[in-house]
Structures are given as structure tokens and as C-alpha cells.
Amino acid sequence: MAGELDLGELLRNVKPEMHEGVFVFCTIAEDAEIPAAIRPLLTFREQEGTTLVMRREEAERIGLRMQFASRLITLTVHSSLDAVGFLAAITTLLAKAGISVNAVSAFYHDHLFVPDHRADEALRLLQDMSAENRPF
């Protein structure tokens, strides 16, 4: 099944869901092996190092330095990777409320990491946007 391309349909059907737990961003040397004791949700290799996004308790357990305590909100609409303007509308809405967001697009859905202390507010804004069918 192909993902949705129509911006109006995406915004009407965003259906955000917040995951349990707090996630953090960590980094290890680019050439280092990912510790076998952890299962990061996200791994991204950059020239300066490998970013690992994982549950806070995992990072604490193995002693990794961490930043950006966040909650994960999944936009459950099946968005196309070719969709134009979807994340721009979402991140603009959150930016207007002063909420930072780190967005990740995957094959089926888009995922938002928002500050732990603003997560309920972010979820409410996304739900209201979808219910009112207003992108901004």
C-alpha cells in the first residue's frame, strides 16, 4: 500500500499517538560498535559520531552521556516519503507554541521527539489540528 501524498488528507488523518517512556539522544564514536546490551530505537551515523536514540533507563544503565529527554509521538497516518509540506505544517504548529521537535521519517510513519515536559501539550495541539483540519 502506497503512502498518502495529499497534504489535506495527511493533516486530517494524522492521529498522533504518544509512546510510553522517555527517550534520549546519545553519541558514540563513529567507528565504535553499538554496545550489545542496548537496543536503540534509532541509529544514525555522522562524520562526528554515531547518534543513538534510546530509552533513558538504557542509557543510564550503561553510563552513556545523554541529551534531550523527550517523548515520542508517532503520526499514525501512512505518509508517503514523497509527501510535500506535511512535516513543515506539523513543525510549524509546534514552533508557534515554542515546542522544539526532532522529526524522523520512516517507511510508514513520521515520528516526533518532543521535550518531555511539553509532550502532553504537543500531543493536544496535534490532536486539535487534526480535528479542526487546520494545518497552521
The helix-strand sequence is: HEEEEHEHEEH
Overall form: globular
User: What average pLDDT do the residues reach?
Assistant: 92
Count of DSSP helices?
4
Percent of residues in helices? 25-40%
| Gyration radius, in Å | 16 Å
The number of distinct β-strands equals 7
Distance between the termini: 28 Å
**Structure classification:** alpha+beta
Uncertain stretches: none
Profile the largest sheet. 7 strands, antiparallel
| Beta strand % | 25-35%
List keywords for this structure.
about 140 residues
What do you see in this structure?
- The structure is a single chain.
- With 136 residues, this protein is an alpha+beta fold.
- Helix content is 28%, strand content 28%.
- The chain has four helices and seven strands; from the N terminus they run αββββαβαββα.
- The chain has helices spanning 7-12, 56-62, 86-96, 119-132, and strands spanning 16-18, 23-28, 42-45, 50-55, 67-75, 102-105, 110-115.
- Strands 1, 2, 3, 4, 5, 6 and 7 form a seven-stranded antiparallel beta sheet that branches.
- The longest helix is centred in the C-terminal third of the chain and has 14 residues, at 119-132.
- The model has no long low-confidence stretch (mean pLDDT 92).
